[in-house]
# Entry
Amino acid sequence: MTRLAFSLFETLLTLAILSIFATLGYFWIPDSKLHLAQNQIISHLNYTRFLSLNNAKQITQSAFCQSDNCKQERTRWRESLWRMQFSYLQDIGYAYYIFSDSARAVRTKNLDDRPRDRQEIARDLLDNKYLNVYNNDNSKFANPLRSGDLAITQRFGIQNVKASGGCGEDNAARILFDEKGFLLCKNPYKKPTTPTGIVSLELFNKSGKSVKICILPSGFIQKC
# Structure
């Protein structure tokens, strides 16, 4: 009699072999890590935009405006919006974090792109960990400094992150979204501006190969 289907053993054996090849590909093929980093960052960019759309940073909320700088906060609220920022950190390499900003009681830390307050740092929806790699919240709820998902040089071998296009060129890229989900440009200590076109994030690995992420002025995010 002709057999019409695979046995359970044959099916499991095939899945096991495919799993082995997938695992080997992750470690042996550098480009696979490059694409994994690209997928993760796209996911986190969409989450950053989600936060902007669903948490418009109402200035009058006590949890947000909790210092004598509230007047300044009301006039500079666009600088406080949710953003993803890439940085090159000593002994770690490239990493990124998702946070918002606010006027704080400490005068030297007002709207200056240094996420220190817990309520200003995004948390992962699955494990409640802070999506940050270098602040004082490196506790059991924080991503470990060297091995966390956000340390993309350590985890994925990313050697460079380059932003270009509608926001100019900046290796320490900052991607902001306003309360309507539109893209904004941001440089350290400067006010956000409207992009002049598509912003491109390019991730490079050790061999010089790269992948790109395109962010449209409308806030739409895609591979490119």
Q: What stands out?
A: DSSP finds four helices and eight strands in the chain. Strands lie at 83-89, 93-99, 160-165, 174-177, 183-185, 199-204, 210-215, 221-223.
